[in-house]
Amino acid sequence: ISKGPVNSKSAKSTVVPPGPPVYLDLVYIPNHSNSKNVDVEFFKRVRSSYYVVSGNDPAAEEPSRAVLDSLLEGKAQWDSNMQVTLIPTHDSEVMKEWYQETHEKQQDLNIMVLASSSTVVMQDESFPACKIEL
């Protein structure tokens, strides 16, 4: 008896299977916002008031422009226009370009991007920070 590969996958698989949406307060976009792990289906299903967008590696496309565009496309399909806030962890060129090129659509979809220039100073160290009130 011959057996095929145990872990065979279809050519196109979605990270988040179709189904009813899940509502959360805060979501860290997986894998440094890389498009290999996050698509439109993710944002259609995983609905959050706040998304943390990490990644600061242009060579690895992190964060990915495709992921940011997927947020716009996914959010456009929500049944409500709830406020969504993006929290970038780095001041990347991809984020700046996306913000400028899609600003009008962001406003239409009630999406706000926080500036990433806030810092907290403790003793002799300073580090980036963001205050979120839920």
Automatic annotation (TrEMBL):
What's the protein called, per UniProt? MAP1B protein
Q: Which GO terms describe its biological process?
A: axonogenesis; dendrite development; microtubule cytoskeleton organization; regulation of microtubule depolymerization
Q: Which residues form a coiled coil?
A: none
Q: Which GO terms describe its molecular function?
A: actin binding; microtubule binding
Q: Which organism is it from?
A: Zapornia atra (Henderson crake)
GO CC terms in record: cytosol; dendrite; microtubule; microtubule associated complex; neuronal cell body; synapse
